[in-house]
Amino acid sequence: MRFYGSAMPFPHIQGGFSEQLIIEGYQAHPIADHLSLSEAALAEPLSVGLHAIQRAGSVLGKQVLVTGCGPIGSLLIGALRRAGAARIVAADIADLPLKCAKEMGADETINLKTQPQALDAYKVDKGQFDTVFEASGSEAALRVGLDTIVPRGVLITVGMGGDISLPMTQIVAKEVDLRGTFRFHAEFATAVRFLNEGLVNGKPVITSVLPLDSAIEAFDLAADKSQSLKVQISFQNA
To answer: Which bin fits 126, alpha (ψ -120 to 50), beta or left (φ > 0)?
Structure first.
């Protein structure tokens, strides 16, 4: 996968914000006629979730916790449902992303701001979740994940919140397998196919689509997590 706008390789790769752009054939993935461009744009964040599942290994029949239910976390939940997770618990600190998580397939949603003790039941017997996906980048969420994961469980860090302090004694004693995940590769083609075939419905993640002349309003709205998850700008008729 070649990522435009990437400073990781050298020379740096320019971004794709231009009127015309020549790409390699392997980067082009046809979308179904019935799939809107708005929905097709979800292939990128869905790919992040699919790659996180790939890093975790099989989730078939497993108890799973997802902390952080923004666009990536919520699409991850849709992918987990497709991958056969037996039970998915979603946690966040706001109601709107939890509503989306429910629509994407979560069995239980927990607002840790209004119900800070709600995950305590999952801490008994050294933890209840086989796999935890931490998609918020929060140190507090990561620690909750470590408290509720079973010994020798797999904890995938999806969110990036900067440097945090890790309770190494707990990680070592429970033999937790802590794995990072970043971007995606082959999963992009799978994400497009899932969206094309309706195997994952990402519509609940899209909270607003604004025209180009309302771009400033779109960015302001996207910054308000109490009102939005995925805000898109439409260039049609621009």
So the answer is: left
